[in-house]
Amino acid sequence: MSPAAAATLTTAWHGTATMHFTAGASGTVLQGGATAPLKLQRTFSRADGRCELPLLHTAGGLVGGDRLSLDVDLGPGSRALITSVAAQKVYGTIGRSRRSPAGAWATQELNVQLAAGADLEWLPQELVLYADGLYEQTVRVDLEPGASWLGVEVVRLGRTAAGEDLGRGRWRSALELRRLGADGPRWELVDRLELGGAALQGEHGMAGAAVFGSLTWAAPEPLEAARLADLLADLRADRGDLEGEMACGALEQGLVARYRGPSTTAARSWFTRIWARLRRERGLAAPERPRVWPFQEDPLAGLAG
């Protein structure tokens, strides 16, 4: 589907997906379903019992007005990794329609429930926002005691290889993490971002860079201050040979890392190194490259187990 053809569509999609993971004797298993244009691909069980699930968006990209609604529920002690089969495209709509010259937003809503001891790694491939595209995502994660969330996102603002920037487009994101306990819910993080307009060039925004990345880890247990400081120092040292600006800092029970620069490869490489370090920090099996990742480079190559 070409961007021009996509922008002329008058019927918006509302794709839904429901995923419920449970821990069994031979590993974590999935029950769920999806409606077009979303499709749940065949799962794969890793050696440590983690269930790897690729999500497929069959429509070739998102157009203004399209909605994706995803509900993920992990039962006690279950482990899952969810990724996407390909990069997600968001086509431009501003100024493309006489009826809606201001354009229309494509949206994605992800709701995650993590039971006690559950462990979810949310590792989609990057999102490419075309010139004059509008995209908004909301992620809400509730964690019971001992649960862990690792979430990554990488977004390219405009098809820079084609000499295109984001133009009048905008990208919005809202991430909410809550800890659930006997004393009621406790907010771990409320993170709201918007990139567009002056923020694309401003020093406190993207400073002219085309790629933004964010990684958030909600740890299953609090880390001692010295242990967390050592972990952050190691993550900062892992940036050495990569282009772009990278920073990371502590949450009350976890951490956040950010990337700003020209390269999705660099963002993906740093976040993969963080992923591997967090696995080691927790005494878990070294990560393996998801089967559907098509990257020419292997971001896990050369990492110590």
State the gist of this model:
With 305 residues, the protein is mainly β. Helix content is 12%, strand content 42%.
Q: Which whole number gives the mean pLDDT?
A: 93
How is the main sheet built?
A: 11 strands, mixed
Please identify the structural class as seen in this structure: mainly beta
Radius of gyration: 19 Å
Number of domains: 1
Kindly report the oligomeric state of this protein.
single chain
| DSSP strand count | 18
Give the overall shape, derived from the CA principal axes: globular
Number of helices: 3
Structure description:
With 305 residues, the chain is mainly beta. The chain has one domain. Helices cover 12% and strands 42% of the residues. The strands form 2 sheets. Strands 3, 4, 5, 7, 8, 10, 11, 13, 16, 17 and 18 form an 11-stranded mixed β-sheet that branches. Strand 17 and strand 18 form a beta hairpin. The longest helix is centred in the last third of the chain and has 18 residues. It starts with a helix and ends in a 24-residue tail after the last helix.
